[in-house]
Amino acid sequence: MDVIELFKYMISCKSETPDDGGLLDFIEKYLSDFTAVRVDVEDVKNLFISKKFGDGEHLCFAGHVDVVPAGTGWESNPYEAVEKDGFIYGRGTQDMKSGVAAFVQAAKEVNSFNGTLSLLLTSDEEGEGINGTVKALEYLKKHDLLPDAVVVAEPTCEDRFGDAIKVGRRGSINGYITLKGKQGHAAYPEKAINPIHNIAQILGDMAGVDLDNGDEFFSPSKFVVTDIRSGMQVTNVTPSHLDMMFNVRNTTLTTQKEVTEFVAKNFEGLEYTLRLTQGSYPFRTNTDTKLVKNIDKAIEKVTGLKPKHSTAGGTSDARFIAPLGIDVVEFGVKNDAIHSINERTTRKEVQDLYEVFKTLIDMWK
C-alpha cells in the first residue's frame, strides 16, 4: 500500500467512538516488525507500537482512529472513500485518519533511525477520553516507556496546508451556577425575589468578558455563557431559582481561582452556589525545543511555508501528554470540515503530510 491506499482503507472502516473498526489490529499487523502493546480498557482499544533503532531519543506519533457519527445528508457513503475533483470524501478524512495514515506509512518505510520510533493510538478521543490515551500513558510511565517528544496528527492548518501547528492548547473550565430567589405571584413582584431580574442586571458585565489579556500564544480567556434556565413555563409565577452554565477556555494566566473571584464580584449581595470542573489544563511547548524547530523545518521543506505557532481551538489528547513533561506539538491537514457533513480533504494534503512526517523522522538526530 502507499499512503493514499492506506488512507482510503481506513476511511472504509467504520470506527465510531469507541469502536476502532478493526484498525488497531490491522495497524499492528501492517507494522509487523514493530513491538506492539495493547492497553485496552473496557470497550476502548489502545495500541502502543514501537521499534528501537538506536540509543537516541524516543520520537512518538499519536492519534485516534475513532470518529464522530456521520449524521445524515451526505452526498456519498461516509464510510467509503470517494474521490472527486481532487478531494477525498468520508468521515474522518480530516479528523484524523489522514494524520494516522500519514504517520503509519512513514513509520513503515523507516529503515534507520537514531533512537526509538513509536505510535500511540486510541479509539476514545472523540468520546469521554477516560479510557483512551490517558490509560496508555499510565502504562508507559509505569514501564519507563514514555517518549521524549510527541507529534499528535490532529488537523491544524487553517487556510493552506502547512500554515499552522499547535504548540499548546487552552484549558477548559466548566461552570455551573444556581442563583437563588423566592417564588411568588407575578402580580406581587415586591413579595418575591426574581432571579431572572437579578441576572439581567449583571449579565452584561459577565457574558463575553475577557478574564485576562492573553499573550503572544494565547487569545484571552473569555467567559462564555452557554445555558440559562428558569421558571415553570407559566406567566403568573416568578421562579424560585435560576441555573446558568458557562465555559472558559483558559490561558495559563487564568485559573479556577480567578473565575471564582470574577463570579463573586458580579454576584455580590446575591445568594448563589457555584461549581467548577476542569477537563483540561492549558499548556505550551517551548518553541525553542528540538521538536518545534525540526517540525518547522520539515513543513517548510515540503510546503515552502513557515507555520505559525498557534494554541487556538478546542482540546486534544495532547492535554494528557504535556503534563508528563513531554514536548508535544500537533500538526495535520486543514481543519475546515471536521465533524461536518461531507467531510473531506485533498489527496495532495495527505501526500504532503506523509512527506512532512518522513522528513521529520529523517532529520531527527
**Beta strands, count:** 19
Helix proportion of residues, in percent? Answer: 25-40%
- Tally of structural domains: 2
**Assembly form of the protein:** single chain
Q: Please, what is the average pLDDT?
A: 97
Give the distance, in angstroms, between the N- and C-terminal Cα atoms.
Answer: 28 Å
- Find the CATH topology of the largest domain: Aminopeptidase
Ranges with pLDDT <50 over ≥5 residues? none
What's the short story on this structure?
With 365 residues, the protein is of the alpha+beta class. It is built from nine helices and 19 strands.
How does this structure look, described?
The protein is built from nine helices and 19 strands. By secondary structure, it is of the alpha+beta class. It folds into two domains: 3-169 and 282-363, Zn peptidases (Aminopeptidase); 172-280, 2-Layer Sandwich (Alpha-Beta Plaits). The strands form six sheets. It has a six-stranded mixed β-sheet with strand order 1-2-6-3-7-18, with helices on both faces.
Task: Please name the defining characteristics of this protein.
alpha+beta; Aminopeptidase; 365 residues; six-stranded mixed sheet; Alpha-Beta Plaits; single chain; four-stranded antiparallel sheet
Topology of helices and strands:
Elements: H1 3-12, H2 23-30, E1 35-38, E2 46-52, E3 58-64, E4 82-84, E5 87-89, H3 93-108, E6 116-122, H4 133-142, E7 149-152, E8 164-166, E9 168-169, E10 172-180, E11 184-185, H5 195-202, E12 223-230, E13 237-238, E14 241-248, H6 256-266, E15 272-280, E16 283-284, H7 290-303, E17 308-310, H8 318-321, E18 327-330, E19 344-346, H9 347-363
Parallel strand pairs: 3-6, 3-7, 7-18, 8-17
Antiparallel strand pairs: 1-2, 2-6, 4-5, 5-19, 9-16, 10-14, 10-15, 11-13, 12-14
